[in-house]
């Protein structure tokens, strides 16, 4: 590494460097099957049981803003994004550890709200909140969640298993979270302007947010798709590759292709857009597709599956086939509604600058 | 909870509240044997294998100061304090997940140093660095480590198992870390004063620190006592209760007594003091015993054991018997070198204000 700041190295450059430095330690744990590079680490507990483990850090002013994130929602989201990583391995979540750094001036009631939200989500997913750590913070809240789940060697879905010809599928609808965030940021601007001008801020203005409710909920209170994992396990479906959509459809599809050594082709017309994303995009003179491709934080599942399983998923109302895996040489492309080919790999930073 | 700030509630009050809020989720994970309240959560993997898991948060300016913490040491310590919690369950560490929030202006080289230290320690403990998360930080470095280990139902040592009559034992020597920290803080003050007065700071002055080297190393580069766990497993010793000394001997002994429903009696004259703690205490006109009782961060093991096992530990050069477990009514006491009885429970905040 050089003396250039991390900001220049970028997130993926940094992760690559860290993976390189950790690599020599991986041989130490005999049972370790996958280290850094997937949604979870994979550890072999026995012949028939695999453990998956993931951890995520949420930093105030980087990942959330208390001006528009109710603490109960924040607690729920902190757990959900980790459970979503467990689900992305086709695994069932079991327990979680939660560490939290708090400004000492924060009211105890705020902590109660946060943990209530977390405990509520834990109840929905059947996850035990089994331990953690508390610390003072010098500036803002930091939440670190580690989630642990279980699956079997037959059911495990890595990012690296996609094969040429596989269908590319997505759950739910995309773009809602990014659209909701755009609305929330506008509201924040209005609020801050009012405060700066010493004008009274009319709380009732928030009533107008009702029409954006669906999208805002996608952003503040996302759900991990453990229901899809239950469906897979019931139906005996094992995706050849899977990831949860946290960076945006474009980036996350490229993660699968990079690890699988394949290309991909998806069709714009098949991408399920969140209904609110459309009218919010119109209002902001934005392209709704951008929210889905580059927005991220939808926490839906993106997976690939052999075509022989088409009948199994065709009947599920919340799974959409959006394309297919192609040879590596063909790249990662999308044909738009006019039939034009767009190279998704050329937009590495996501679609925000598309 | 009330609207009073967390600072008023105190760390232990906060943990109690959080445990209460998380309690309803514990039934969710069938295999969960111990939730919040011990060094690790305990999860039953099979009839014969228990998993233990712990997580710790290190926050810049709260837990460490880069002015005197080399980043390699910091990386090593971040892992060691978690492995120490695993050891305190009489378990062997297996893998760890590491999350880190970094100011974007930090040079990439700094991250390399941090992970080099971590990877080096991981190598010593046989721990795989299996995954993690990276994030930007708005102020200072935050490191969150989760460590996972394994033991058996027969070998597991909780805080709650001490029985009246058991010996109270401690590994290594105590007080080195707190003594080292006192020296480092004085050096920092001198450095800051020089900078504020625009005087050149002579780096060679640090050469004087050589005579404090042992204590400083205790603070900056502590080791988890996995060697003791290996010894226990080889000899078939299972402590009736165990904890690692992170809050100071007084607090940590009280943790064992509270969870076990017992009292304890220790003798000042038997407490093994770090040799550097004595001469540093003299220089600072401090009581060396304070460092051991209230200083904390020694990461030695404090455990209880039935007297029938006395022969097994009497031969170990690094284990000292310092007292015995008594009935609850007798409280947690120490007789000093003059034979006076001191009630340790009256000094809840540790011995800094003793």
From TrEMBL, chains A, B:
Boundaries of each PurM-like N-terminal domain copy?
37-150
Q: List the molecular function annotations (GO) for this entry.
A: ATP binding; magnesium ion binding; thiamine-phosphate kinase activity
For the keyword Magnesium, the answer is: yes
> Which parts of the sequence bind Mg(2+) 3?
39, 85, 244
Instruction: State which pathway it belongs to.
Output: Cofactor biosynthesis; thiamine diphosphate biosynthesis; thiamine diphosphate from thiamine phosphate: step 1/1
Residues recorded as binding Mg(2+) 1, renumbered to this chain, are 55-56, 133
Question: Recorded E.C. number(s)?
Answer: 2.7.4.16
EC top class named in words: transferase
- Binding of Mg(2+) 5: at which residues? 247
Miscellaneous comment text of the record: Reaction mechanism of ThiL seems to utilize a direct, inline transfer of the gamma-phosphate of ATP to TMP rather than a phosphorylated enzyme intermediate.
| Gene this protein is translated from | thiL
GO:BP terms for this protein? Answer: thiamine biosynthetic process; thiamine diphosphate biosynthetic process
What are the leading ranks of the lineage?
Bacteria, Pseudomonadati, Chlorobiota, Chlorobiia, Chlorobiales
Q: What is this protein called?
A: Thiamine-monophosphate kinase
**Which is one Pfam family of this protein?**
AIRS
State the UniProt keywords alphabetically: ATP-binding, Kinase, Magnesium, Metal-binding, Nucleotide-binding, Thiamine biosynthesis, Transferase
Q: Which organism is it from?
A: Prosthecochloris vibrioformis (Chlorobium vibrioforme)
What transmembrane ranges does the database entry give?
A: none
Binding, ATP: 115, 132-133, 159, 246
